[in-house]
Specification:
Number of helices: 7
Strand content: 5-15%
Largest sheet: 8 strands, mixed
Structural class: alpha/beta
Strand order of the largest sheet: 3-2-1-4-5-6-7-8
Length: 241
Amino acid sequence: MSASPRAHQTLSAKNAAALDHDLMTIGAFSLDQLMELAGLSVSQAVYRVHPPSRGKSILVACGPGNNGGDGLVAARHLWHYGYRPIVYYPKQGKNELYQRLVTQLKSLDVPFTEDFSTALQESHHVVDAIFGFSFSGEVRAPFGAIIEAMKSTPLAVTAVDAPSSWNIEDGPPESGPGKDFQPANLVSLTAPKPLVQWFRGRHFLGGRFVSPSIAQKYNLDLPEYEGVDQVVELNAEGGKL
């Protein structure tokens, strides 16, 4: 797939990892805090593109890493907004943070499913929180089939930081799961990544936690957020709509 002429200001894989490190050292954020802010941003983007009046059943597909954690947080916020999230989380993270996020959802009686296909048929919108910007290598089972299902579904999909299986620098894969996968919406976290050159849908930024000094260090010209919003929609050139 050829790249779009969009002129987004983007953050490379190396700088994205370094910026996250700075947020947790210079910025003194914990991983819990950053995941909470990321998931909140995703939930607000979903509310914008798919308000509850369009259907309340939201299928949240979560991977084993931090991207999946963002999805778990988003599912909790969506429940509080009045949606009916259902979570697909086949490779659950074993550390204490992920376990707490799962417990929080179960305390709200948010259902977890192992049957993605049936849940997809019963849903109105999908959140792709399987793989984030650090993904590389091959897509392993069961996620290949899940990505193919998200590609084929007529439902709108909102991807968290990266459409799953996309490479942060090179965009969608040329073959295999994820080829021709174009979610309707993308929520970039902290700053857009180079892969947005290939993205064609509605693009949101969630990063209302980056200090001016860190933004300056990475030469980020971040847009202004309105009111209490945790997301801002970007135009084709990467500016605020």
